[in-house]
């Protein structure tokens, strides 16, 4: 019979070495906070048009039928001009009454207004396209506004934010130099406001005013504002 091997004594557990604190190179008790501004511009590539038809009659049905005929004609002209169905949306449907005096005495006149919001993706052709739509709608046509926009504002906003952050850092570096310190890591970032700051370019008139219509898209601007706090850097060996 094979003799049992004696059990090896258990080695005592080595005491856990205390974690050494990581030497810090940041002075979190102080620092500098600055606010930077940035902006980016681009030529608009779409036009958002608000147009419709407004008609009056002795009753609601008469007014609605006349306005609807005008909007339908404008819609068909827009589709024939290359506007996609998905870029057309009803934006207003309303009626109201007002007193009117006629040969037979006082009556109530009913007015109906129907409107479309149209996204035109050919800026250069937008003027002629809108003129054709208003002409098709006839005397009941109304043009409320034309607003130019950038279809994909994401890259524009990113460029504005990058410029704002760079501006905040340049300010912080100047203050650090004036204070005889060096910037450490960013401690906090806070974005304020910002967004589009377009120059208003609105048009409003009745259809017969537009035998020819020129458009000037100008440039669309996105603003950004950011506040950044930096810690002071601590010199090695201090």
What does this protein structure show overall?
The protein has 238 residues and is an alpha+beta fold. Helices cover 26% and strands 42% of the residues. Helix 1 packs antiparallel against helix 2. The radius of gyration is 34 Å and the shape is elongated.
Short synopsis of the structure:
The chain is an alpha+beta fold.
Observed structural traits:
about 40% strand; 3 helices; about 240 residues; 5-stranded antiparallel beta sheet; single chain; alpha+beta; elongated; about 25% helix; 3-stranded antiparallel beta sheet
Which class of secondary structure composition applies to the elements? Answer: alpha+beta
Contiguous uncertain segments of 5+ residues: 18-24, 199-210
Order of helices and strands: EEHEEHEHEEE
Provide mean pLDDT, rounded.
Answer: 84
- Terminal CA distance reads 71 Å
Q: Strand count, sense and closure of the main sheet?
A: 5 strands, antiparallel
| SS summary, helix count | 3
């Amino acid at each position: 019979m094979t003799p049992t091997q004696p059990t090896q004594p258990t080695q005592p557990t080595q005491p856990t070495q205390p974690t050494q604190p990581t030497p810090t190179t940041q002075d979190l008790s102080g620092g500098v906070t600055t606010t930077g501004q940035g902006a980016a511009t681009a030529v608009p590539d779409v036009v958002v048009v608000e147009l419709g038809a407004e008609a009056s009659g002795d009753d609601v049905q008469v007014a609605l039928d006349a306005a609807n005929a005008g909007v339908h004609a404008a819609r068909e002209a827009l589709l024939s001009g290359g506007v996609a169905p998905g870029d057309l949306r009803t934006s207003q449907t309303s009626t109201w009454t007002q007193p009117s005096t006629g040969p037979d005495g006082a009556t109530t006149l009913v007015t109906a207004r129907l409107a479309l919001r149209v996204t035109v993706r050919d800026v250069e052709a937008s003027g002629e396209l809108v003129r054709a739509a208003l002409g098709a709608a006839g005397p009941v046509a109304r043009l409320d506004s034309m607003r130019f926009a950038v279809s994909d504002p994401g890259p524009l906003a990113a460029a504005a934010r990058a410029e704002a952050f760079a501006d905040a850092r340049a300010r912080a570096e100047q203050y650090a130099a004036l204070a005889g310190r060096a910037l450490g890591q960013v401690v906090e970032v806070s974005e304020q406001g910002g967004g589009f700051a377009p120059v208003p370019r609105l048009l409003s008139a009745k259809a017969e005013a537009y035998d020819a219509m020129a458009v000037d898209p100008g440039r669309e601007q996105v603003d950004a504002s950011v506040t950044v706090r930096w810690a002071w850097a601590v010199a090695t060996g201090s």
